[in-house]
Amino acid sequence: xxxxxxxxxxxxxxxxxxxxxxxxxxxxxxxxxxxxxxxxxxxxxxxxxxxxxxxxxxxxxxxxxxxxxxxxxxxxxxxxxxxxxxxxxxxxxxxxxxxxxxxxxxxxxxxxxxxxxxxxxxxxxxxxxxxxxxxxxxxxxxxxxxxxxxxxxxxxxxxxxxxxxxxxxxxxxxxxxxxxxxxxxxxxxxxxxxxxxxxxxxxxxxxxxxxxxxxxxxxxxxxxxxxxxxxxxxxx
Length: 236
Prior knowledge:
By secondary structure, this protein is an all-alpha fold.
Protein backbone atom coordinates (compact mmCIF):
# COMPACT_ATOMS: atom_id res chain seq x y z
CA UNK A 1 0.00 0.00 0.00
CA UNK A 2 2.86 2.37 0.75
CA UNK A 3 4.39 2.08 -2.73
CA UNK A 4 0.96 2.40 -4.34
CA UNK A 5 0.07 5.55 -2.40
CA UNK A 6 3.45 7.10 -3.21
CA UNK A 7 2.74 6.74 -6.94
CA UNK A 8 -0.71 8.27 -6.46
CA UNK A 9 0.88 11.25 -4.67
CA UNK A 10 3.40 11.66 -7.49
CA UNK A 11 0.70 11.54 -10.18
CA UNK A 12 -1.78 13.82 -8.44
CA UNK A 13 0.43 16.48 -6.88
CA UNK A 14 3.59 16.41 -8.98
CA UNK A 15 2.24 15.64 -12.44
CA UNK A 16 -1.21 17.25 -12.21
CA UNK A 17 -0.45 20.23 -9.96
CA UNK A 18 3.22 20.68 -10.80
CA UNK A 19 4.52 20.46 -7.23
CA UNK A 20 8.14 19.61 -6.50
CA UNK A 21 9.02 16.27 -4.92
CA UNK A 22 9.68 17.85 -1.52
CA UNK A 23 6.47 19.87 -1.45
CA UNK A 24 4.31 16.98 -2.66
CA UNK A 25 5.59 14.89 0.26
CA UNK A 26 3.86 17.33 2.62
CA UNK A 27 0.52 16.12 1.29
CA UNK A 28 0.92 13.07 3.54
CA UNK A 29 0.25 15.34 6.53
CA UNK A 30 -3.47 15.17 5.81
CA UNK A 31 -3.52 11.37 5.94
CA UNK A 32 -1.25 11.39 8.99
CA UNK A 33 -3.61 13.69 10.90
CA UNK A 34 -6.54 11.51 9.89
CA UNK A 35 -4.76 8.41 11.21
CA UNK A 36 -3.81 10.09 14.49
CA UNK A 37 -7.18 11.54 15.54
CA UNK A 38 -9.20 8.28 15.60
CA UNK A 39 -6.94 6.86 18.31
CA UNK A 40 -8.62 9.16 20.85
CA UNK A 41 -12.06 8.46 19.40
CA UNK A 42 -11.46 4.70 19.56
CA UNK A 43 -10.23 5.00 23.15
CA UNK A 44 -13.49 6.72 24.08
CA UNK A 45 -15.58 3.94 22.47
CA UNK A 46 -13.45 1.22 24.09
CA UNK A 47 -13.88 2.75 27.55
CA UNK A 48 -17.65 2.78 27.02
CA UNK A 49 -17.56 -0.87 25.96
CA UNK A 50 -15.50 -1.92 28.98
CA UNK A 51 -17.86 -0.07 31.33
CA UNK A 52 -20.78 -1.92 29.77
CA UNK A 53 -19.03 -5.27 30.19
CA UNK A 54 -18.12 -4.45 33.80
CA UNK A 55 -21.80 -3.89 34.61
CA UNK A 56 -22.97 -6.95 32.67
CA UNK A 57 -20.26 -9.58 31.93
CA UNK A 58 -22.71 -11.43 29.67
CA UNK A 59 -22.51 -8.49 27.24
CA UNK A 60 -18.91 -9.38 26.46
CA UNK A 61 -18.81 -10.61 22.88
CA UNK A 62 -16.44 -10.07 19.94
CA UNK A 63 -19.07 -8.12 18.00
CA UNK A 64 -18.91 -5.43 20.66
CA UNK A 65 -15.60 -4.31 19.14
CA UNK A 66 -17.20 -3.59 15.76
CA UNK A 67 -18.81 -0.26 16.66
CA UNK A 68 -15.82 1.75 15.34
CA UNK A 69 -15.77 -0.40 12.18
CA UNK A 70 -19.35 0.62 11.42
CA UNK A 71 -18.24 4.24 11.34
CA UNK A 72 -14.95 3.55 9.55
CA UNK A 73 -16.61 1.52 6.79
CA UNK A 74 -18.69 4.57 5.85
CA UNK A 75 -15.90 7.14 6.16
CA UNK A 76 -13.47 5.12 4.03
CA UNK A 77 -15.32 5.38 0.68
CA UNK A 78 -16.33 8.96 1.47
CA UNK A 79 -12.68 9.93 1.87
CA UNK A 80 -11.64 8.05 -1.27
CA UNK A 81 -14.34 9.58 -3.47
CA UNK A 82 -13.61 12.98 -1.92
CA UNK A 83 -9.94 12.67 -2.82
CA UNK A 84 -10.60 11.23 -6.30
CA UNK A 85 -12.89 14.00 -7.54
CA UNK A 86 -11.03 16.90 -5.94
CA UNK A 87 -7.83 16.24 -7.89
CA UNK A 88 -8.70 18.64 -10.72
CA UNK A 89 -6.12 21.38 -11.11
CA UNK A 90 -8.76 24.11 -10.71
CA UNK A 91 -9.83 22.74 -7.30
CA UNK A 92 -7.85 24.06 -4.34
CA UNK A 93 -5.24 21.58 -3.06
CA UNK A 94 -6.55 21.69 0.52
CA UNK A 95 -9.74 19.91 -0.62
CA UNK A 96 -7.72 16.86 -1.67
CA UNK A 97 -5.74 16.97 1.58
CA UNK A 98 -8.97 16.97 3.62
CA UNK A 99 -10.20 13.99 1.62
CA UNK A 100 -7.04 12.14 2.65
CA UNK A 101 -7.76 13.07 6.27
CA UNK A 102 -11.22 11.50 6.13
CA UNK A 103 -9.74 8.43 4.46
CA UNK A 104 -7.08 8.05 7.18
CA UNK A 105 -9.70 8.43 9.92
CA UNK A 106 -11.86 5.65 8.52
CA UNK A 107 -8.88 3.43 7.74
CA UNK A 108 -7.57 3.38 11.32
CA UNK A 109 -11.03 2.85 12.83
CA UNK A 110 -11.53 -0.14 10.56
CA UNK A 111 -8.09 -1.61 11.13
CA UNK A 112 -8.03 -1.46 14.94
CA UNK A 113 -11.65 -2.56 15.28
CA UNK A 114 -11.28 -5.58 12.99
CA UNK A 115 -8.01 -6.65 14.63
CA UNK A 116 -9.66 -6.65 18.07
CA UNK A 117 -12.66 -8.51 16.66
CA UNK A 118 -10.46 -11.24 15.16
CA UNK A 119 -8.46 -11.55 18.39
CA UNK A 120 -11.64 -12.02 20.45
CA UNK A 121 -13.33 -14.32 17.92
CA UNK A 122 -10.31 -16.62 17.46
CA UNK A 123 -8.73 -16.45 20.89
CA UNK A 124 -6.67 -19.61 20.48
CA UNK A 125 -5.47 -18.71 16.98
CA UNK A 126 -5.11 -14.95 17.27
CA UNK A 127 -1.41 -15.04 16.33
CA UNK A 128 -2.19 -16.75 13.03
CA UNK A 129 -5.12 -14.46 12.25
CA UNK A 130 -3.33 -11.18 12.98
CA UNK A 131 -0.15 -12.29 11.22
CA UNK A 132 -1.68 -12.40 7.75
CA UNK A 133 -0.54 -9.82 5.21
CA UNK A 134 -2.69 -7.85 2.86
CA UNK A 135 -2.09 -7.75 -0.85
CA UNK A 136 -1.02 -4.43 -2.34
CA UNK A 137 -1.25 -3.56 -6.04
CA UNK A 138 2.02 -3.20 -7.91
CA UNK A 139 3.18 0.40 -8.52
CA UNK A 140 3.62 -0.61 -12.18
CA UNK A 141 -0.03 -1.61 -12.36
CA UNK A 142 -1.00 1.65 -10.66
CA UNK A 143 0.89 3.70 -13.25
CA UNK A 144 -0.88 2.02 -16.20
CA UNK A 145 -4.22 2.28 -14.47
CA UNK A 146 -3.87 6.03 -14.02
CA UNK A 147 -2.64 6.50 -17.57
CA UNK A 148 -5.55 4.58 -19.11
CA UNK A 149 -8.41 5.62 -16.83
CA UNK A 150 -7.35 9.08 -15.77
CA UNK A 151 -6.74 10.38 -12.27
CA UNK A 152 -10.36 10.69 -11.18
CA UNK A 153 -11.65 7.30 -12.34
CA UNK A 154 -8.48 5.44 -11.36
CA UNK A 155 -8.71 6.91 -7.85
CA UNK A 156 -12.37 5.92 -7.73
CA UNK A 157 -11.70 2.19 -8.20
CA UNK A 158 -10.68 1.57 -4.54
CA UNK A 159 -13.55 3.87 -3.53
CA UNK A 160 -16.08 1.67 -5.36
CA UNK A 161 -14.54 -1.46 -3.82
CA UNK A 162 -14.75 -0.03 -0.31
CA UNK A 163 -18.31 1.11 -1.04
CA UNK A 164 -19.26 -2.47 -1.92
CA UNK A 165 -17.75 -3.67 1.38
CA UNK A 166 -19.76 -1.29 3.60
CA UNK A 167 -22.41 -3.93 4.51
CA UNK A 168 -19.82 -6.43 5.79
CA UNK A 169 -19.17 -4.90 9.25
CA UNK A 170 -22.92 -4.44 9.74
CA UNK A 171 -23.58 -8.08 8.79
CA UNK A 172 -20.92 -9.32 11.21
CA UNK A 173 -22.25 -7.03 13.93
CA UNK A 174 -25.76 -8.48 13.49
CA UNK A 175 -25.06 -12.10 12.56
CA UNK A 176 -21.47 -12.51 13.72
CA UNK A 177 -22.31 -15.01 16.46
CA UNK A 178 -24.17 -17.29 14.03
CA UNK A 179 -21.35 -17.10 11.50
CA UNK A 180 -18.69 -17.81 14.12
CA UNK A 181 -20.53 -20.85 15.44
CA UNK A 182 -20.16 -22.46 12.01
CA UNK A 183 -16.40 -22.20 12.30
CA UNK A 184 -14.66 -25.00 14.17
CA UNK A 185 -11.98 -22.78 15.65
CA UNK A 186 -14.23 -19.83 16.46
CA UNK A 187 -16.71 -22.14 18.20
CA UNK A 188 -13.91 -23.66 20.28
CA UNK A 189 -12.69 -20.19 21.22
CA UNK A 190 -16.25 -19.21 22.24
CA UNK A 191 -16.51 -22.27 24.50
CA UNK A 192 -13.21 -21.41 26.16
CA UNK A 193 -14.34 -17.82 26.74
CA UNK A 194 -17.66 -18.96 28.22
CA UNK A 195 -15.83 -21.37 30.53
CA UNK A 196 -13.50 -18.66 31.75
CA UNK A 197 -16.41 -16.26 32.23
CA UNK A 198 -18.35 -18.88 34.24
CA UNK A 199 -15.37 -19.53 36.51
CA UNK A 200 -14.92 -15.81 37.05
CA UNK A 201 -18.60 -15.39 37.93
CA UNK A 202 -18.49 -18.29 40.41
CA UNK A 203 -15.35 -16.89 42.03
CA UNK A 204 -16.99 -13.47 42.47
CA UNK A 205 -20.17 -14.94 44.00
CA UNK A 206 -18.36 -17.38 46.32
CA UNK A 207 -18.50 -16.26 50.00
CA UNK A 208 -15.22 -15.21 51.53
CA UNK A 209 -14.27 -17.54 54.38
CA UNK A 210 -13.23 -15.62 57.52
CA UNK A 211 -9.76 -16.23 58.83
CA UNK A 212 -9.10 -17.97 62.17
CA UNK A 213 -8.35 -14.65 63.84
CA UNK A 214 -11.62 -13.10 62.63
CA UNK A 215 -13.57 -16.21 63.72
CA UNK A 216 -12.21 -16.02 67.25
CA UNK A 217 -12.94 -12.31 67.46
CA UNK A 218 -16.55 -12.80 66.40
CA UNK A 219 -17.18 -15.73 68.81
CA UNK A 220 -15.51 -14.02 71.78
CA UNK A 221 -13.13 -16.89 72.31
CA UNK A 222 -10.07 -15.35 70.81
CA UNK A 223 -6.98 -16.97 72.24
CA UNK A 224 -4.79 -14.62 74.26
CA UNK A 225 -1.46 -13.86 72.75
CA UNK A 226 1.30 -15.87 74.41
CA UNK A 227 4.59 -14.27 75.22
CA UNK A 228 7.85 -15.93 74.57
CA UNK A 229 9.37 -16.99 77.97
CA UNK A 230 12.85 -16.22 76.77
CA UNK A 231 11.95 -12.71 75.72
CA UNK A 232 10.08 -12.20 79.03
CA UNK A 233 13.12 -13.34 81.01
CA UNK A 234 15.39 -11.03 79.11
CA UNK A 235 13.12 -8.10 79.89
CA UNK A 236 13.32 -8.97 83.64
